[in-house]
Amino acid sequence: MNSFFSIGELSKLQNISRQTLIYYDKIGLFCPAYTDPNNGYRYYSASQLDYLDTILILKQIGFSLEEIKAHMAHYTIEKSIVALRKQLAVVTRQIEELQMIKSRIRHRCAQMEYSVAVKDKGEEVTVERVERQFILLEEVRPPHTLEDVSLATKQCFVRAFREHLPIYFQSGAIVPYERIVQGAYTQAEYAFLPIGKSASGVASVRELPSGRCVCTHHIGDYASIGKAYARILAYCEKNRIQIMSDSYEFALNDYLSTGDEREYLTKILFYIG
Questions:
Q1: Do 226 and 185 form a contact (C-beta atoms < 8 A)?
Q2: By percentage, how much of the chain surpasses pLDDT 70?
Q3: If DSSP states are collapsed to H, E and C, what string results for 91-156?
Q4: Which of 33, 79, 145, 210 lies at a C-alpha separation of 20 to 30 Å from 200?
């Protein structure tokens, strides 16, 4: 059969596995021109090569096998333009999503690298100028236990993923100043996720303005964060610094970074006058 290719020959020629060709035959996408009734061997004609090329190209640019089969049942130039324009929109959206994920991963890497440098400096208190940023809020239900904070954080992530919001892979919490003074250091009022400024008009997104803040870092499990608050409050009292806001806690190292709570790192900041 000089005008035909065996399945093995076609497999080598088109760099496609025999199993894939058999599967394409099974689903009716690309069937052999002739099947020997005596032994079941599949043979493909030279005229089928262009058809197979088209299938492989469409698959390469992201079409599903079902979409390819439906498209190639009766395809014309007009239908191909429509299909390719639709796929172009899909690919463009995927690129945008991947670019966002790339920037979030880069941000997370920078955080972890920063946390290593901070640990070397110890747990000092500093006064810094912070840049404007935005956070996605989720209210923590009473009695504001650590479990309640964790659940609120999870709800933040669920909403962000569902609505495709431009969050960073970081979490945080807001603890009212009055509770901190009373020693209720872990009773957060809100959990939050830092989010891109493009979400500034989204419900439950709060803008944190640029300004001067007093800051410190807590190293270790969250339950022992009280010693960091004692340190920062003592510093403000000694230097006559007036605290003007609730506490904003940013988790720099958490369960996303390490399985060892001794490596957890939380940045605490208050806006000051």
A1: yes
A2: 98
A3: HHHHHHHHHHHHHHHHHHHHHHHHHHHHHHHCCCCEEEEECCEEEEEEECCCCCCHHHHHHHHHHH
A4: 145
